[in-house]
Structures are given as C-alpha cells and as structure tokens.
Amino acid sequence: MRRRKFLGLVGGAAASWPLAVRAQHPDRMRRVALLVLYAENDPQGQTRAAAFRQGLESAGWTIGRNITVDYVWGTFNPDWTNSVTKELRRLAPDVVVVNSSTALDAIQSAAAATPIVFVAVSEPVAQGFVASLSHPGGNMTGLTNLEPSMGGKWIGLLKEIAPQVKKIAFLYNPGNPGSRVTFQTAQSAAKAFSLDLADRPVSQPSDVEAVMTALGGEPNGAVIVPPDPLTVGFRKQILDLASSYKLPVVSAIRSFADEGGLLAYGVHIPDLFRQAGGYVDRILKGSKPGDIPVAQPVKFVLIINLKTAKALGLTVPAALLATADELIE
Hints:
Elements lengths: L2 E3 L24 E7 L6 H16 L8 E7 L9 H9 L3 E4 L2 H10 L5 E4 L20 E4 L6 H12 L5 E6 L4 H16 L3 E6 L3 H12 L4 E5 L3 H5 L1 H11 L3 E3 L2 H5 L4 E4 L2 H16 L16 E5 H6 L6 H6 L2 E3 L1
Parallel strand pairs: 1-3, 2-3, 2-4, 4-5, 5-6, 7-8, 7-9, 9-10, 10-11, 12-13
Antiparallel strand pairs: 11-12
C-alpha cells in the first residue's frame, strides 16, 4: 500500500480517469482510492482508515492479494487545486471512497463514470449528489451522518449539563447544507429554552478567532460544532480558545470530546467507514452504485468528558452519566 498526500481538488475539473483498465477480469487486482480528510498523522484519520480496511476484510477482501487501497490524506487549505484529480487519474481506481461534500462535488464533475461511495456526507439529496436515498441513481451512493433533529438534541444536552448557558454560537461551515438543516432544528429548541442561538459561519482560522473571542467576552456562553471536515480541521484552535474562555463545546464528532470539548453526540464515524467497505464490496461484485440505497444513521453515541466538566465547574446529572456510551476521566 502506498500512502499519498491529499494535495487538492478543483470543482471545475473536467477530466476523468481511464475506464479501460476496468475490463471484467474477476481475478485481477482491484483498486480503491480512499480520500480521508485528515492529516496522515491524525489518529482520527488513522482510525477511519483502519475501520474501512476492516470492512473490506469482513467482506472477504485481502489487501495486497486481491485489492489495493491507495490512501489520499489531507486537510482543507488554500492550496486545494487539481492535484488529487490528477492523482486519481493516474491511479485509475475501480471505486473512490470520500468523506467530504467538497471533494465529492469535485469528483462528481470530474469522473461521472467512476463508482463513488461517500461517507458521512449530510443531506446528499439536497446537495444534488443523489436523486433519492432509496434509489440514488447515477454513479454514487454512500452513508449519511445526520438526521435533522440532531440540532435540537445538542441544545437539550447542553442545557441539561450546563443549565447556566444563555448564549450559544453555532459554529459551522457555510458550504455544508446539512449544517443549515441542523441549525434550524437547534434554533427551534433554543427558543423553547429561551436561549440565544447565534448563526456563526466560519471559513478560515480568523473567523474562528473572531467568533470565539466575541463569545468569550460575555458570560454564560457555549459553542456547538456540527460535523464537517472544515471545522474538524479547526478543532485544536476551537478547543484551545474554548479552554481559555471557559466555554463548553458540544459537537457531533468524538475527537472534540477526546481533545477537551465537553461532550460529543452523533454517529460513530468509524462505523460508517467500516460499512463503506461493504458498499465497495457490492460494487466490485457487480452492483451499480445507483441501485444501492443510501444508508441513514440509526445509532448515535454520547461521549462526555468529565475532566472538562470539572474544569468548567459543571456537575453532570446522574441520568446523563447513566446513559452516556463513554465517559472520559
């Protein structure tokens, strides 16, 4: 297996990689390109890659014997250009697996004939990636990571564990339609609790700095971060500033709780990567992506960081302690 740095994608790319190499030879080595929107040394990215490998192996594939996985690593940065599209053309994979709406959009336009499995992409119908969840059509299918009521659940958990909170910054990537959907449900819940929920889109570190500094200058603030590779890439900055200003942070992604956030509630993303291995198996065995239903989340995990709660002067209710899937001490 070769590891390759995730260098870039462009939404306007017009090239597609060769299809001739996909002639129907059942015994030939199959090739999958796995685009992981993390730096290669990020433990969260490695966990996702390992889960995907497990999914392939559970389906009967052996890496190095009948399948090759090319890992394409990287994070959002201003240098996103044609490089990944060129790399994928060179690799000519049988299937591409990707966990970013931005990357998925670029690949969709660049390789309309290549099967694509997306992982943890929210609102794929609204974004125009698939025709419907039950019958995607086209060349892609995959697994979503949100359902609309999640926004209200984050508000409820925050109010239960930090009842003093009055103002919440909803910090999200404005390019992700799924974040807008969860903001709407969070807003409805915030009104019910008489909370001030502020719409705070961020696209670069300076945006994060401005939002966190403004919120930190007022009492009883908190932060909600919906799932998106962009904000995950900003997590160290978000958590460092939250610690400085003593702001509780709630996210859908466990790495926030692992690294100092108050709690995480959402889908266990590595499980989605594991399931993606099964989707790839079906495609390599002849199923068309457009005929495979998009999977919606059915299990959500609650992780509470007790060390952070203590540092914030919060007492976690016994009911939450009992229902949490994991407690970080």
